[in-house]
Specification:
Blueprint: E1 5-14, E2 19-27, E3 33-37, E4 50-53, E5 58-61, E6 63-68, H1 81-90, E7 93-98, H2 109-122, E8 126-129, E9 131-132, H3 145-151, E10 156-157, H4 166-178, E11 182-185, E12 197-198, H5 201-206, E13 210-211, H6 214-230, E14 233-236, H7 242-253, E15 258-263, H8 264-268, H9 290-301, E16 307-309, H10 317-320, H11 337-346, H12 352-367, E17 382-392, E18 411-421, E19 424-428
Parallel strand pairs: 1-4, 1-5, 6-7, 7-8, 9-10, 10-11, 11-14, 12-13, 14-15, 15-16
Antiparallel strand pairs: 1-2, 2-3, 5-17, 17-18, 18-19
Helix pairs in contact: 4-6, 6-7
Length: 429
């Protein structure tokens, strides 16, 4: 047992209850919420409680990041589960879903159990493993969904790999439906994705090969059709163009059980940020045009895009400090997701309630996690945010082992000033 926790005078934003009011959060010795809201201020306080005056701060359900890559097992020099968890806590993230692209691939029970045990022993936040959809991510032989789910896998994905065999995809979605499991795929055509940045005039100026929008749209529309056919839960793991958002909306309106995510990078950056071949901006999907970015921000604001992910993907100098065409795709993002998202709030493009919903309540709902709410009885995973705290991203101070952030030297307003997991403070500034 731990000491009870009382957070007083906070602006409480809880999208799960459509709550935005100043009040108190009371957490018990068991790490669960006793009460949260304006009414909680009138309740008696637990004996021996740790008290914190949160005047001027926003309290939200702990953030949930549904797409995080870690190097463990196999590439611990890039990121361990422990270091990723510390980066998450620094960014206000109390739960994240870890992708199965490790060495070996997380495609059997022993590896799911390894991730869960390592997280229990070393992580300061909640870590949920996603399992491989196919063995070795080879796109041919399905994994044992039922056994993996019982071992603790919360979703099934082929990671960065394209699943090109449509029959395997249909069988996998049918199989997943029987276990009420989420199939999460990154829509990416391996043949059309042979370029290195967004196809367009800017790519031509830089002399770089382009990736057209169709590399995302075509496989997504195929996936959506098969999801409708099989009645499976399908999640488009990363979309970046408005045509993709429209396709998801159309499928949903037709009755398909489909959701979508966008990385914070594609809401905050565009292809012009690549500048003179800056490889920390080499991502998959590639950064798109400013018109595309603004259209996706609008889709997020309307709820047409369900969630925001960091797409945290650590790489070291051996894979990033290369000519642009040769550098690996990906950037770290656990520590900057919240602050980058708050730019959308400060500019009036997305409400704060919708942002928290997209980074906490909605991802927890999609993947069935015990998170994303401040309801009484819920786990006391809480993020305290100072909306106006100024800070500059300095790569050497990042908790992540890898430093490949596209926001190096960026100036932000707003950050997590304290992160609580089950009522215990795991990060504070």
């Amino acid at each position: 047992m731990r000491a009870p926790l009382v957070l007083k005078n906070a602006r409480i934003i809880d999208p799960s209850r459509n709550m935005d009011e100043v009040g108190t959060i009371i957490c018990g010795e068991d790490g669960r919420i006793i009460a949260a809201g304006a009414d909680a201020s009138n309740q008696g306080m637990p004996e021996g409680a740790e008290m914190r005056d949160c005047t001027g701060l926003v309290a939200t359900p702990g953030l949930v990041d549904a797409r995080v890559y870690a190097g463990e097992p196999g590439a611990e020099h890039r990121e361990t589960i422990a270091s990723a968890s510390r980066a998450a806590a620094a960014g206000g993230v109390t739960s994240f879903i870890m992708m199965p692209e490790t060495d070996p691939v997380i495609d059997d029970i022993a590896l799911v159990e390894f991730v869960r045990k390592t997280a229990r022993d070393t992580a300061v936040v909640n870590v949920y493993p996603a399992a491989a959809l196919t063995r070795g991510l080879n796109g041919k032989e399905m994994t044992e969904f039922g056994l993996l789910q019982r071992a603790g896998a919360v979703a099934f994905t082929n990671g960065r790999q394209t699943l090109s065999d449509t029959l395997v995809l249909r069988r996998a979605m049918t199989y997943a439906r029987e276990f009420d499991a989420v199939v999460s795929l990154e829509p990416r055509d391996r043949y059309l994705s042979g370029g290195v940045m967004n196809e367009g005039l800017f790519a031509s100026w830089l002399g770089l090969s382009g990736i057209p929008k169709e590399a995302e749209i075509i496989p997504l529309e195929r996936d959506l059709r098969i999801a409708a056919l099989t009645k499976a839960k399908y999640h488009a793991a990363k979309i970046s163009v408005p045509e993709a958002s429209e396709a998801v909306t159309i499928a949903r309106n037709r009755g398909a059980n489909v959701t979508s995510a966008i990385s914070i990078n594609h809401l905050s950056l565009n292809e012009n940020d690549i500048g003179e071949y800056r490889t920390f901006f080499k991502l998959s999907p590639p950064l798109r045009s400013e018109d595309d970015r603004m259209a996706m921000v609008d889709a997020l604001s309307k709820g047409e895009i369900d969630i925001i992910v960091s797409s945290h993907d650590p790489h070291d100098v051996d894979t990033k400090r290369l000519p642009f065409a040769d550098a690996a795709d990906g950037a770290v993002g656990l520590e900057t997701m919240l602050s980058a998202a708050l730019r959308l709030h400060h500019s009036g493009l997305v409400t704060l309630n919708r942002l928290i919903d997209a980074m906490s309540t909605r991802p927890a709902s999609i993947f069935g996690l015990d998170a994303g709410t401040l309801k009484p009885g819920a786990k006391a995973d809480i993020t305290l945010i100072d909306l106006d705290e100024p800070w500059i991203v300095e790569k050497d101070t990042l908790m992540s082992r890898s430093k490949n952030t596209p926001f190096e030297d960026a100036r932000f307003s707003g950050r997590a000033v304290a992160t609580y997991v089950a009522g215990q403070c795991v990060h504070s500034i």
